[in-house]
Amino acid sequence: MEPLQFNFSHPVNGKVRLFNRVDPHATRVIQVKEEDGQEIGIPLNDLCSGRWTATLEWEYDGKNYCYAQEFEIP
After folding, report:
1. Rounded CA gap, 38 and 11, in Å?
2. Measuring CA to CA, which residue among 42, 51, 46, 47 is closest to residue 16?
3. Banded model confidence at residue 68, pLDDT cuts 50, 70, 90
4. Which of 26, 36, 58, 72 is the most buried (most CB within 10 A)?
5. Do the Cβ atoms of 52 and 22 come closer than 8 Å?
6. Residue 36 — φ and ψ, nearest 5°?
7. Count of structural domains, the chain
8. How many CB atoms neighbour CB 72 within 10 A?
9. Is there a contact between 18 and 47 (Cβ–Cβ < 8 Å)?
10. How far is residue 59's CA from residue 53's CA, in Å, rounded to a whole number?
11. What are the phi and psi torsion angles at 24 (to 5°)?
């Protein structure tokens, strides 16, 4: 399975929360840090099938940001 990709034009330091609606115990939190402001890839290989929500939270230049994306693993 392809990783979940996030692209940035600035440095990123934050976390990605992967939440499964059917099995909340499968939730994972991954710390992310990219100092060059490039692409961040989140591996999905070991996640169970079903509908997931990825929420990326980070801080940049004194401001907090949040981005959420839903996806499904067959």
Report:
1. 8
2. 42
3. very high
4. 58
5. no
6. -95, -5
7. 1
8. 8
9. yes
10. 20
11. -60, -20
**What is d(CA 71, CA 60) in angstroms, rounded to the nearest whole number?**
26
Number of residues that make up the chain: 74
Enclosing domain of residue 24? 4-73
Q: How far apart are CA 6 and CA 34, in angstroms?
A: 11
Q: Which amino acid is it at 74? A: P
Which comes out higher in pLDDT, residue 14 or 2? 14
Amino acid code (one letter) for 39: E
- What single letter denotes the amino acid at residue 50? G
Cα–Cα dist 11/15, whole Å: 13
The DSSP-derived string for 9-45 is SS-EEEEEEEEESS-GGG-EEEEEEETT--EEEE--T
